[in-house]
Amino acid sequence: MKLFLTGLLTLITFTGWAQTTAQININSATEVDYVYSLTIERVRFHETIGVGLAPTEYETIDVFDLSFQKDGSTTFEVTKPVLVRLNIVSKRPTNNLDPTEMRQESRTQLLYITPGEELTITVNPGNQLMFAGKTVPYQEFLQDYFLENHYQYLPAFRFDPRKIDNPRIIQQSDSLAQLRKTKYEELRATLPIDEVFDNYVRATTHVELYQMRVTVRDREIRQNTPVRLTPAQRKELDQITLSNFKLFPDEALLSLPYWNELQSWILTPITEKYPPSKANQYLLDEAAVSEAYTASTEKLREYPKQQQYMNTYWLNYAVTALPSVKVAKSLFADFRERYPDSPVKEYFSKLISAKEKLEKGEVAPDFTLLNADSTAVSLSSLRGKPLCVAFAFNLKQHEPALRLVEDVKGDSVLFVYISVAPGIPFSVVSIKG
């Protein structure tokens, strides 16, 4: 038997600190067949529906379809410099375009927005952007030399996914990094650069340069086949990170490539000491998580924001991925004392408390949710036969994973699927029994 329920979750947000705003205006003198969406990228841990604690927040602030509107404006809260992704999507078919044309048709352009900013973006023919506002030099520099990530340049580098050997990719990646450095020094010579932007540019340029070497070498090792790397091959790739990564000031956390490499730099020596099991090469054990937390505390002692960010990551791993709460409780005791102002302390406290009540043999706490016909269904009303409860963000994606078990167990087990995604109409869920 199968039962679908819809649950309601409360998303906790922290908005008490918002004190100022920024404004972005976008316009075009002529009709263009593009949609422009603006998404704020905030590097901070926050609660998310269906995920739990996410390390980066993406907030869509507005969407403009310039095929039927000539201009648009949006105002949003911002208390410190942030990156805003300007996603440009063509409404026309792009199948026959070459890589250079494709980049103009659909791409993600980064904007650097500071509190009090009033940025105006004018779309010119050819999808070229012109800026007006106090941060124009920053926007022009990012437009010329920074897409959303280094891999968006692959079409322009003439990357051929059918080939294993792509030596030109490395050459052009190195050339882009050198061009970025040269042009940035020219920019620095013309105006004072704020600290956040400076560390974002320097950290991203440094990390993306050697990340491309890892990508190309990984393809060579795997020979374009989905094979698992041997320990020696994995060590070769990890060594590129260990040899090239360097710490930047805390403001560099704005750079997601830098944050990802920071995590790898901390973790790589630990996974060599505590190799993951063959059954799951991505799952860390208790000793590895504890040591990762300790290593972050020690290595990042002079970088308090990065230290707190990484220790939040390892604590979250301990709470959610480890079967026992022993390590989580130990790390949380240190975390509360070390970071008394952390906004996620209450989240961890509640999660650890809830997980302690879910030990094998314990009685599950009762709850009541809505059935597909809006009638209330409590857990206690389902007593009488073995019960399998699956919390699913997307019912169609998660249900097949248990279908084989359903076929074997037949009517001897009741399967209950609980949707944790908001806004799903009852018409798309059903009861099967």
Number of helices: 11
- Average predicted confidence as pLDDT: 83
Radius of gyration: 25 Å
Shape category: globular
**Strand runs, count:** 15
Poorly predicted runs: 7-18, 426-433
What assembly state would you assign to the polypeptide chains in this entry?
single chain
Q: What proportion strand? A: 15-25%
Strand order of the largest sheet: 13-12-1-15-14
| Helical residue percent band | 25-40%
Summarize the biggest pleated sheet: 5 strands, mixed
Question: Secondary-structure element sequence?
Answer: EEEEEEEEHEEEHHHHHHHHHEEEHE
**What is the rounded distance between the termini?**
4 Å
Structural class assignment:
alpha+beta
Note down, in words, how this protein is organized.
The protein is α+β, with helices and mostly antiparallel strands and 433 residues long. Among the domains are: 2-7 and 361-428, no CATH class; 149-271, no CATH class; 274-357, no CATH class. It is built from 11 helices and 15 strands. It has a 5-stranded mixed beta sheet, covered by helices on one side. A 4-stranded mixed beta sheet has the order 7-2-10-11, covered by helices on one side. α5 (231-244) packs across α6 (256-273). The radius of gyration is 25 Å and the shape is globular. It starts with a strand and ends in a 14-residue tail after the last strand. The model is unreliable at 7-18 and 426-433 (pLDDT under 50).
